[in-house]
């Protein structure tokens, strides 16, 4: 029962094909497309795939983008598209959002993937789960799997564009991260990086205080590798966290 996992972010669509919807399965194919190129999937990489038996997707984009993906699938296969929507509880995670269905699907799926990864590695611990992309999200989960709440803040690119549009003369190339920047390019890059790092480290402090234990910390997202070297607390960088979560959900739903 082959399984197609789809992750639609703010900028790109990422996909992976697995031989089965089983936690720990390794992809047999995968790729990524910018959202403006979604309509080329059926004529491109997807045209070379054997028809999947199941599909589960996670999207933060508008319904129109999901529909474009469904149209590409319909050109090739007879397989229904299913999209994750956050719920009150699923796969061992309890949703503490004021309005559970309004929680972003990517945040929900990432927490589920991280929770399963943490439990597979040892005893239950609280968690901090971070996604670094166009936007940055920082989630807190307690030892029982309850989502306590999370931050949303602009990603580095949005910060820079905001400064360029609101500040005269700030049109400079991206610089390097320095402890003590001595030029404008480095000052902008360092400021954005340490602003994000500060928000993450503050959430780690909150979780320590709330839960009385050191949290397991996971980081994912397209720009996660840029942030990881500048963190003062240890994080495990997991590029596949959304796909891991989709596998957990698909397996849990099949079993239920």
UniProtKB/TrEMBL annotation:
EC number: 2.7.1.33
Binding site for ATP: 7-14, 134
Cofactor note: A monovalent cation. Ammonium or potassium.
Keyword hit for Nucleotide-binding: yes
Main localization (coarse): cytoplasm
Pfam family, one: Pan_kinase
Keyword ATP-binding belongs to the record: yes
UniProt record similarity statement: Belongs to the type III pantothenate kinase family.
Pathway(s) of this molecule: Cofactor biosynthesis; coenzyme A biosynthesis; CoA from (R)-pantothenate: step 1/5
Gene3D superfamilies, per database record: 3.30.420.40
GO molecular function, one term: pantothenate kinase activity
Biological processes per GO annotation: coenzyme A biosynthetic process
NCBIfam families assigned: baf
Amino acids binding substrate: 97, 104-107, 184
Top-rank taxon, per record: Bacteria
Annotated catalytic residues: 106 (proton acceptor)
Enzyme class, first EC level, given as a word: transferase
Reaction it catalyzes: (R)-pantothenate + ATP = (R)-4'-phosphopantothenate + ADP + H(+)
Entry keyword set: ATP-binding, Coenzyme A biosynthesis, Cytoplasm, Kinase, Nucleotide-binding, Potassium, Transferase
Oligomeric form and interacting partners: Homodimer.
Protein known as: Type III pantothenate kinase
Compartments where located: Cytoplasm
